[in-house]
Specification:
The chain is α/β, with parallel strands linked by helices. It has helices at 10-19, 26-36, 51-63, 82-95, 112-121, 130-138, 155-160, 164-172, 189-198, 213-216, 229-239, 252-264, 278-290, 300-303, 323-330, 351-361, 370-380, 410-432, 436-440, and strands at residues 41-44, 75-78, 103-106, 125-128, 149-152, 179-184, 203-206, 217-223, 245-248, 269-272, 295-298, 313-316, 340-346, 367-368, 464-466, 471-473. Helix 3 (51-63) packs across helix 4 and helix 6 crosses helix 8.
Length: 484
């Protein structure tokens, strides 16, 4: 089937062509004609199937006629997290580039004043997380009486995150004569009853999940002692051929401290968790997408559903407490049929969690010893002829090319990459090095590889630089042969 068979107008077809999609995904094939008929619909599909376009494309088509009125949006998309809401908003921008539609993104952590100004002008599409939307509603800044299309995205995650009462309140304020679309990866009883309550005679379409990350990802586990986990992570990073990676921690405070530690050791790392201001989260994610940040250290909540293409690795600094989170974490790599690799650091207290992961993935993942893990990483990083390739160069010393997903090419690409690096530097300096004294300790004539220079960060003025290993050694680690 072709996009031209789905009933979309020429402007949308042109936008799709510009993006380069050649054919609709199964969920798009099934959902778009139903939505264009103004039917209610339940879409059983998860991220990675193209489900966002399956509702944004027909919504743009339907909203193309008609005009927005001040503070009375015409359609509403509810998403569980700020990042997912932002992704939906990006989709509207991408596909709606030939339509003069206006939209507002209402998420926590961003200025309410700015959001109110946009609402005053009138918006066609409102994309919101439930909490911020209710806040604005309670302050009398928004009326939902003109909503004609309601989308509840990732309903099962909304349930996990405790948003169902908020959703019920929001829906009670929307006119009953509307079109409602509900998307969910799974259909637990609570979501089933929600859909019976809010949808009228819905059509259900379901698509198989995309190739399970459990199949496309190389799962590895390595035993680790709690006190030496950071060093061990660093060794793993150095033994692997990394393009970019998510590094997951179970606790927010560990996200901050690990990110800072990695920066201090010369890596282009940045932290992302739910307590950070939204503007910083957005900036960090963009820097990661653009290649300025290579290691994104994050909590589960910050990474939910994020669609970053071509991520080569996932490191679980902590074994996730919930085996489903493991599947979710490793699904950040190995997307769209590409291969990816996931390393999990396992301590002796993690036996039960590891058993749960083995059960959920159906894979008997062996916990390797630290030495075996590093050695196997190094061996795999060489090409079959045994010659060293770029993988032999530690990731922190490599000059990074911008990721393919960014629009960077030629001179513009270089500018984008350098601005991404500058952003990464700003982010890491702002987020991970709040202490001016620690900053001052850095030597002014050496810059960290965050700046894309060769030498890693020098911590103390008496650190010794070893040309052979391209490393600074601090007082306590400097090898005897280098001591002054
Ligand atoms: P989603 O499931 O909405 O998170 O989309 C997953 C990825 O698929 C996104 O990066 C989209 O840009 C991409 N995508 C959506 N529709 C298509 C299509 N028809 N052909 C190729 N890629 C697509």
């Amino acid at each position: 089937m072709d996009f031209t068979d789905l009933g979309l107008g020429p402007e949308l077809l042109k936008a799709i062509e510009d993006i380069g999609y050649t054919s609709p995904t199964p969920i798009q094939e099934k959902a778009i004609p139903i939505i264009l008929m103004a039917r209610d619909m339940i879409g059983l599909a998860q991220t990675g199937t193209g489900k966002t376009a399956s509702f944004t494309l027909p919504m743009i088509e339907m909203l193309a006629s008609g005009r927005a009125r001040s503070r009375m949006p015409r359609s509403l998309v509810l998403a569980p997290t700020r990042e997912l809401a932002a992704q939906v908003a990006e989709n509207f921008d991408k596909y709606g580039k030939y339509h003069p539609l206006s939209k507002a993104l209402l998420v926590g952590g961003e200025s309410m004043g700015d959001q109110i100004k946009i609402l005053e002008k009138g918006v066609d599409v409102l994309i919101a997380t439930p909490g911020r939307l209710l806040d604005l509603f309670d302050r009398g800044q928004i009326l939902l009486t003109d909503i004609r299309i309601l989308v509840i995205d990732e309903a099962d995650r909304m349930l996990d995150m405790g948003f169902i009462p908020d959703i019920e309140t929001i829906v009670s304020k929307i006119p009953a004569t509307r079109q409602t679309l509900l998307f969910s990866a799974t259909m637990p009883d609570e979501i089933k009853s929600l859909s019976e309550k809010f949808l009228s005679n819905p059509k259900t379409v379901s698509v198989a999940p995309p190739a399970s990350p459990a199949q496309t990802v190389d799962h590895r586990m390595v035993s680790a002692a709690p006190r030496t986990k950071k060093t061990q992570l660093k060794k793993l990073i150095e033994s692997e051929d990394i393009k970019n990676a998510f590094v997951f921690c179970n606790r927010k405070r560990d996200v901050d401290s690990l990110s800072k530690w990695l920066c201090d050791h010369g890596y282009r790392a940045a932290a992302m968790h739910g307590d950070m201001p939204q503007a910083r989260r957005t900036e960090t994610l963009q820097a990661f997408k653009d290649g300025g940040v290579i290691l994104l250290v994050c909590s589960d909540i910050a990474a939910r559903g994020l669609d970053v293409s071509g991520v080569s690795h996932v490191f679980n600094f902590d074994v996730p407490l919930n085996a489903d989170d493991y599947v979710h974490r490793i699904g950040r790599t190995g997307r769209a049929g590409q291969s990816g690799k996931a390393w999990t650091l396992v301590t002796e207290d993690d036996d039960k969690l590891v058993a749960a992961i083995r059960k959920v993935t159906g894979k008997d993942i062996v916990v390797e010893s630290a030495m075996a893990a590093e050695a196997s990483g190094r061996t795999r990083a060489r090409n079959p002829a045994g010659e060293s390739n770029e993988a032999d160069v530690p990731v922190k010393q490599r000059a990074r090319a911008p990721s393919k997903s960014s629009s960077s090419s030629g001179a513009h690409g270089k500018a984008a990459a350098s601005s991404a690096r500058a952003t990464a530097q700003a982010i890491t300096q702002g987020a991970a090095q709040p202490d001016a004294a620690s900053h001052a300790r850095r030597s002014s004539n050496t810059t960290s590889p965050i700046n894309n220079n060769k030498k890693p960060a020098r911590h103390y003025t008496d650190d010794v630089f070893d040309e052979n290993t391209d490393n600074y050694f601090t007082d306590d680690t400097v090898p005897a042969f280098l001591r002054k």
